[in-house]
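Risk register update: the risk of archive-format incompatibility is retired. Evidence:
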Amino acid sequence: MMAGYSGRPLAAKLGLKPGMAAFCIDAPDDYPALLGPDAAPVAAVDDIPDGAEFTHLFTTSRAGLQAHLTRARAVMARDGMVWVSWPKKASKRPTEVTEDVIREICLPMGLVDVKVCAVDGVWSGLKLVIRKELR
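Archived output:
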């Protein structure tokens, strides 16, 4: 399935590559279809394991974001990435999470945002990586 107006599969937009240690938390049921038919597998987990190269968190809760992002930062690979997705304003879904809230939580952890993308009609995504001087 192509995501958004770019015509690129979501997995490509997110930087998901074959062989990555890839995980998701609280992803929508159609997440595998959103990624596309040729996407590398992403394991749905409740807790992110050590060495995660790719983690995609879906949340509407500030507390949930804080908890999952704290864990993700502690276990992510040095060159890994964490995508945080929250409902777009246009989706009319209740949420405590915005780009500003994500930055407020991630910046003190040594994470910086480097990319934003539309995951689907409901979810936006912000890509976080470890600040260069901390890798």
